[in-house]
Amino acid sequence: MPARAKAATLETLTQRIHRVYDSLPEGERKAADLVLDMPGELATWAASELAEQAGISNATVSRFVRRLGYRSYEEARRASRAMRASGSPLYLAEGGQRTGKPARTLERAIEIEKALIDASVGMQNPLTIDAVATCLAGAARLRVAGFRNSYFLAEYARTMMAQFRPGVEMLNAPGQTLAEGIATVGPGDAVLIVGLRRRPAGFTDFVRAVAATGADVVLLADLSIRGAPAEARWTLNCAVETPQAVDSYVGVLAILRTVALVMLQRLDARGRRHLERIEQIHANLSELE
Predict the structure, then answer these.
(1) Within this chain, do residues 137 and 275 fall inside the same structural domain, yes or no?
(2) Alpha-carbon distance 52 to 50, whole Å?
(3) Element (H, E) at 183
(4) In 221-268, which residue ranges form alpha helices assigned H by DSSP?
(5) Which residues, 6+ apart, have CB-to-CB distance to 140 below 8 Å?
(6) Residues 121, 182 within the same domain
(7) Helix boundaries (H) for 123-148
(8) Within this chain, do residues 131 and 40 fall inside the same structural domain, yes or no?
(9) Are 20 and 147 within one domain?
(10) Do residues 42 and 125 both lie within one domain?
(11) Do 114 and 210 belong together in one domain?
């Protein structure tokens, strides 16, 4: 494949449109404007729907997608679906958001959040949750890792679990390399890795490198994860996808909190003693209101 043609296949749908936009005839430009406004909608529209929405003919739609370098309209739809599946906020945005009433927007958001919590909880096996919590409670050292949006969720898990037991730290702490973090764990340790979609390149290699230390790996991910679960002892899946511009992590937070609560049950008196020690030091230092 020529280098130019190969490069074109790597372009996203919107990148292709921008590249040819200035040369588009008026009718095709109407289709381009509509798709650029709501690129994720192309995943659900039939060619006739795009034509109707843009006020153009089906033949114009066919010429438009061919001008973008796609062999068919269906191929363009697959490109849009792929970007939606990857979690791209641009491709997740719902159509019609600009004119939505604030009250309905809030109501819709709450409906989606509830559904994601229900879906995430429904994916869990109580026996697996218990096994994961028991492992994390009993490990010699517990490390937590996450990248991009998953980082704050990993930090949330670390903050909760550090209340109940010592030796809980971020594996990919700021200011250190991944190798430096991985080198701190080995057999008898546990590593909780949050890996939600839009993961960085090399994520599976990172999980593999952690597993190679002999530590027990717990992976918490959405359903788009591929490859990495083979390296983990347990994988907990959560629902994150919404029809809106950003993913929601309420289901992930619910599962992390559940694991932490079961950990506290497994630690029993040891967990309470650690928590009491922290509270006493808080009081001695007058750290909290």
Answers:
(1) yes
(2) 5
(3) none
(4) 250-267
(5) 167, 188, 189
(6) yes
(7) 126-138
(8) no
(9) no
(10) no
(11) yes
Q: Which residues in 9-46 are b (16+ Cβ under 10 Å) and which e? A: eeebbbebbeeeeeebeebbbbbbebbeebbbbbbebe
Residues contacting residue 49 through CB under 8 Å, at least 6 positions apart: none
Based on the domain organization, do 196 and 138 belong to the same domain? Answer: yes
Q: Could you tell me the two tokens for 272?
A: 């309470």
Choosing from 35, 59, 93, the residue where a domain stops is 93
Co-location of 117 and 45 in the same domain? no
3-state secondary structure 18-39: HHHHHHCCHHHHHHHHHHHHCH
Residue for token digits 């950003």?
Answer: 246
**Residue 247: inside a domain:** yes
Q: What does the pLDDT profile of the chain (289 residues) look like in tens digits?
A: 443 343 344 567 777 888 888 888 999 989 888 887 776 677 778 889 889 988 999 999 999 999 989 999 888 888 877 766 655 544 445 554 444 566 666 777 788 788 888 878 887 888 889 999 999 999 999 999 999 989 999 999 999 998 888 889 999 888 889 889 899 999 999 999 999 888 888 898 999 999 999 999 999 988 777 778 888 888 888 888 776 667 778 889 999 999 999 999 888 888 778 778 877 887 778 787 7
Structural domain for 134, as ranges: 109-285
- pTM attached to this predicted model: 0.66
